[in-house]
Amino acid sequence: xxxxxxxxxxxxxxxxxxxxxxxxxxxxxxxxxxxxxxxxxxxxxxxxxxxxxxxxxxxxxxxxxxxxxxxxxxxxxxxxxxxxxxxxxxxxxxxxxxxxxxxxxxxxxxxxxxxxxxxxxxxxxxxxxxxxxxxxxxxxxxxxxxxxxxxxxxxxxxxxxxxxxxxxxxxxxxxxxxxxxxxxxxxxxxxxxxxxxxxxxxxxxxxxxxxxxxxxxxxxxxxxxxxxxxxxxxxxxxxxxxxx
Length: 244
Hints:
The protein is of the alpha/beta class. The protein contains nine helices and five strands; from the N terminus they run βαβααβαβαβαααα. It has two domains: 2-179, 3-Layer(aba) Sandwich (Rossmann fold), CATH 3.40.50.360; 186-241, no CATH class.
């Protein structure tokens, strides 16, 4: 049984975004997929204080429900993240969550996990959530396998033919990637290369000045720092875990 975790960045559990996400996911084979829907109001989360401790310890020092939420995301086989368009961007709730996970963007913490990015809007802003959210997922190590925005005008969210076509395509990709080990892509490779260079520079500074870096320690402990590509790292990870 594969686990799908859908983080919906809206407090409206029966709103357009939740309905759009559920329309897509509820048609997945129920004997193959377990789906969990998460909403911001279900977790007690504080704002990021900008203390930068997470970059030193690879862990947030604020005591709230963040680790519970993070564990649900990390334990999933496929991660779905979504938001309505608010002022041409994602919701403040979702941005808060991503801010609190900022060290993930320096460690590729999603480790090649398949990610689906969805959004909804009224009449414009079709790309204003999809594009930045996809980039964030990429920097966090997620392999974005599908993106889609549903708009009220034109009325896509009640267009059964459009919804069926979109749902079928996304479901097809989710089923296919659920059967594969974590995958890399050209965007992840570029991200890996850029961050690895930064980690190597950090290593030199640490040796010279004794600076603490949880990010560098994560790269060293996972073995990413020793790999030339993200694909090479993911392959070694599967091999070490007894995969094929």
